[in-house]
Design goal:
The complex is a heterodimer of chains A (112) and B (111).
Chain A (H helix, E strand, L loop, with lengths): L3 E4 L2 E4 L5 E7 L5 E7 L5 E9 L2 E4 L6 E3 L9 E3 L8 E8 L7 E2 L3 E5 L1
Chain B lengths: L3 E2 L4 E5 L4 E7 L6 E7 L5 E8 L4 E4 L2 E6 L4 E6 L8 E9 L3 E4 L3 E6 L1
Parallel strand pairs in B: 2-11
Antiparallel strand pairs in B: 1-3, 3-8, 4-5, 4-9, 6-7, 7-8, 9-10, 9-11
Classes of the chains: A mainly beta (112), B mainly beta (111).
């Protein structure tokens, strides 16, 4: 089945720790995105990548880092510099050029 | 900077009534507009994508219109059902290959 897989579904982070969220797609999409969603709010763009080995900051990139070493994978690291990381994180992908975007099922990150 | 607004934030209707969801955007130079559905604790499911050259798109009971000049899109859901209860989000794409999302409208369809 083609789609986007995010793991884990739930993640708990201690203060001062870095954690990495996984996003894998087998849709052969060039572009991949990471969004953050806070309760009752819309999605805010963290990072996006339009091609392997290249990525751009979104609107709220501080405290986050990404890599795009493979077309199908776009992991997001939430670093200790992110002071308020508790949120729902969503990964998306699509073919370049304004095509339909497809989303994973999300990872809920909680700081304990 | 593109801003996308969805009003109302929440909507409750009896089963069978038609739903009308609104989305407005500030920059009319968009490439497309996409509507999504989100169930609690889940990811987003794409409903309809309207390219900037199109006026509307239809899929089953769903119809979305786009008026770039006024900066508005409307999602119509005919004959609503309890299973339509969810949050509906719109997103516009402008230059830079980025989607800008509205805050969503939370819909409850009462049996």
């Amino acid at each position: 089945d083609g789609g986007i897989t995010q793991s884990p579904k739930y993640l708990f982070r201690k203060e001062g720790q870095n954690v990495t969220l996984s996003c894998e797609q087998n849709l052969n999409h060039d572009a991949m995105y990471w969004y953050r969603q806070d309760p009752g709010q819309g999605l805010r763009l963290i990072y996006y990548s339009q091609i392997v080995n290249d990525f751009q900051k979104g609107d709220i990139a501080e405290g986050y880092s990404v890599s795009r070493e493979k077309k199908e994978s776009f992991p997001l690291t939430v670093t200790s510099a992110q002071k308020n990381p508790t949120a729902f994180y969503l990964c998306a992908s699509r073919v370049q050029g304004g095509a339909e975007a497809f989303f994973g099922q999300g990872t809920r990150l909680t700081v304990v | 900077k593109q801003e996308v607004t969805q009003i109302p934030a929440a909507l409750s209707v009896p089963e069978g009534e038609n739903l009308v969801l609104n989305c407005s955007f500030t920059d009319s130079a968009i490439y497309n507009l996409q509507w999504f559905r989100q169930d609690p604790g889940k990811g987003l499911t794409s409903l309809l994508l309207i390219q900037s050259s199109q006026r509307e798109q239809t899929s089953g009971r769903l119809n979305a219109s786009l008026d770039k000049s006024s900066g508005r899109s409307t999602l119509y859901i005919a004959a609503s059902q309890p299973g339509d209860s969810a949050t509906y989000l719109c997103a516009s794409e402008a230059a830079g290959n980025k989607l800008t999302f509205g805050g969503g409208t939370r819909v409850l369809v009462k049996p």
